[in-house]
């Protein structure tokens, strides 16, 4: 449905993401708020990998409620609290993203609403008109 755009003459992406994604006319967009690594039972895993898994699992639930799935994700914005969390987050992200991989930004931030949170992930998904 969507198409990755990787222009010639541009350095390839640093990781598994696309420089841009084109969304076809007539698609509908679903914009998800940032999801933190916390389960419905209020449990917060101690590792960035565990928290990132919960972020993506939460996103799957949100997208399913809209009739979409992770293959419809066209954009990811992710935030981690330290450079040491980049590799762990990206390993989890790479298990959840489809081909072509979405456009993506990963930023290091000073913290979140609670000190135990290490990662937050927000996405934009595009799917067929309802």
Proportion in helices? 10-25%
Task: Figure out the total of helices.
Answer: 2
CA-to-CA gap between the ends?
A: 15 Å
Poorly predicted regions: none
| Average pLDDT score | 95
Strand content: 25-35%
Radius of gyration (Å): 15 Å
Overall geometry comes to globular
Structural class: alpha+beta
The H/E string reads EEEEHEHEE
Biggest beta-sheet profile: 5 strands, mixed
* Count of β-strands: 7
Please explain how this structure is put together.
It is a single chain. Helix content is 22%, strand content 27%. The chain has helices spanning 48-65, 86-96; strands at residues 3-5, 20-22, 28-31, 35-36, 73-80, 103-108, 119-127. Strands 3, 4, 5, 6 and 7 form a 5-stranded mixed sheet that branches. Strands 1-2 form a two-stranded antiparallel sheet. β5 (73-80), α2 and β6 (103-108) form a beta-alpha-beta unit. The relative contact order is 0.28. The model has no long low-confidence stretch (mean pLDDT 95).
Give a topology summary.
Layout: E1 3-5, E2 20-22, E3 28-31, E4 35-36, H1 48-65, E5 73-80, H2 86-96, E6 103-108, E7 119-127
Parallel strand pairs: 5-6
Antiparallel strand pairs: 1-2, 3-7, 4-7, 5-7
Helix pairs in contact: 1-2
